[in-house]
Amino acid sequence: MKVLGVDNVFLPVGDLAQAVTFYQDMVGLPVAKRFDEIGMVLFRIGDETPGLGVRFTESPAAGGQKVWFEVPDARSAAQELSANGVAPLAPPFQLPTGWAFEISDPWGNVIGFTDYTGKPELGR
Fold first, then answer.
1. Is 79 helix (H, G, I), strand (E, B) or coil?
2. How far apart are CA 92 and CA 88, in angstroms?
3. Which tens digits make up the pLDDT trace of 52-76?
4. Using an 8 Å Cβ cutoff, are 67 and 23 in contact?
5. Number of Cβ atoms within 10 Å of the Cβ of 103
6. Fold held by 9-57+64-122
7. Within 13 Å of residue 89, how many CA atoms lie on the same side as its CB?
8. CB neighbours of 56 closer than 8 A, spacing ≥ 6?
9. pLDDT band at 94, cuts 50/70/90?
């Protein structure tokens, strides 16, 4: 079997409307598609087809998932999210490839943001 790439990443959430407010309005991911009849919303991530999907679950497990996204400048992204009321779990930290930080959604899923300012040849 050959895996061709990432299709979508899905996170369990306890309230679909609250998830849309958090991911669209606070994090800045635009809604790509809504499937309200099955309790699912897909958000665009950059210009790529893969996206972030959230799906309503009666009792999502707190802190069960972690996913990271690439951004041009992680330290600036941390400041922007803080201004939107989403504080990083810890200050941005340096990696060999650049900078990174993480936030938590209302259900305990961890969303990381990283840049490739230390190795721009590896970034998008």
1. helix
2. 8
3. 888 888 776 666 688 888 999 999 9
4. no
5. 20
6. 2,3-Dihydroxybiphenyl 1,2-Dioxygenase; domain 1 (3.10.180)
7. 15
8. 13, 14, 15, 16, 39, 40
9. very high
